[in-house]
């Protein structure tokens, strides 16, 4: 079924609908080992928590899990504002209700990685984020700068498009509506590895995401996310640069060599955003073999292993 969830695939998960201070609800799936850190797993666009279906079974006996549906993406309520700090605070507020007084390892793909980047630079003690895994991103400001390259701007056309005020209406008027628009964009970011594409499509994943984005609230919320990414999020990162704020916790950046790695020297770019004097580990893992942007779905064994190793080191 197109509307199946992580819970239907993995009945060992607990499903949570957590009321937060904005007045809305954050939906999540959790698994509690009873002690130790929590791995907060956050998806990106145009997806849902369903994207982690292949990898979370590998981690369930090693660390407690909090797999969240991004506010504004159809299953959680629209946030009061779409900037990464506001959304990240709502996610952690919900996490802390499900897992009181626990430390957090952030694991975010795409937009979920951008939220994580904002939070680990903020370094708010009440968040208690002890390390982070960011998958297939460079900092938002650096990504916008890359669009001076015409090929990059074409490949990432959805960034400026989704940020314009009338984007939701344009998406709804697309032939086939928002669902078909979602299918088109999912196909554009897939890798060239045939086995990876097949793995991505397992469990009717494309149908699931298309069904999710047939909800106008999901379209509006995700467009709001990109609008914030073109304005307040970049302004915040400009202030970070001016005031010398950088990532200071242990960080692993995982990226597709044929996707993000083709556009950026990922290690060099991130080197400008990480506090190298902090004595904290910074690890880069480039994934080749033609795997594309959706690494946790295209090559789940690789991602499960990399994150599992990180959990083994920082999840005690």
TrEMBL record:
Record-given protein name: AB hydrolase-1 domain-containing protein
SUPFAM superfamilies: alpha/beta-Hydrolases
Domain AB hydrolase-1: 37-187
UniProt-listed PANTHER family: EPOXIDE HYDROLASE (PTHR43329)
InterPro entries: AB_hydrolase_1, AB_hydrolase_fold
Pfam family, one: Abhydrolase_1
Biological classification of the source: Eukaryota, Fungi, Dikarya, Ascomycota, Pezizomycotina
């Amino acid at each position: 079924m197109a509307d199946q969830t992580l819970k239907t695939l993995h009945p060992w998960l607990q499903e949570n609908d957590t009321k937060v201070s904005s007045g809305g609800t954050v939906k999540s799936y959790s698994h509690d080992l009873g002690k130790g850190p929590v791995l907060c797993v956050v998806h990106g666009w145009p997806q849902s928590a369903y994207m982690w279906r292949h990898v979370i079974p590998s981690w369930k006996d090693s660390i407690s899990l909090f797999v969240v549906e991004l506010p504004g993406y159809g299953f959680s309520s629209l946030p009061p504002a779409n900037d990464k700090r506001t959304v990240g605070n709502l996610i952690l507020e919900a996490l802390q209700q499900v897992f009181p007084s626990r430390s957090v390892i952030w694991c975010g793909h795409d937009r979920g990685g951008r939220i994580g980047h904002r939070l680990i630079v903020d370094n708010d003690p009440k968040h208690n984020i002890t390390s982070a895994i960011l998958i297939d991103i460079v900092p938002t400001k650096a990504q916008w700068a890359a669009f001076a390259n015409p090929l990059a701007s074409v490949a990432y056309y959805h960034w400026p498009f989704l940020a314009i005020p009338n984007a939701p209406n344009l998406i709804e008027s697309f032939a086939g509506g928002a669902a078909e628009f979602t299918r088109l964009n999912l196909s554009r970011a897939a890798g060239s590895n045939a086995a990876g594409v097949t793995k991505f499509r397992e469990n009717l994943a494309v149908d699931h995401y298309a069904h999710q984005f047939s909800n106008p609230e999901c379209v509006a919320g995700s467009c709001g996310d990109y609008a914030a990414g073109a304005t307040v999020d970049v302004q915040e990162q400009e202030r970070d640069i001016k005031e010398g704020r950088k990532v200071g916790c242990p960080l692993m950046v995982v990226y597709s060599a044929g996707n993000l790695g083709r556009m950026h020297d990922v290690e060099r770019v991130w080197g400008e955003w990480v506090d190298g004097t902090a004595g904290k580990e910074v690890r880069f893992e480039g994934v080749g073999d033609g795997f594309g942007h959706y690494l946790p779905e295209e090559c789940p064994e690789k991602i499960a292993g990399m994150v599992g190793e990180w959990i083994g080191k920082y999840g005690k």
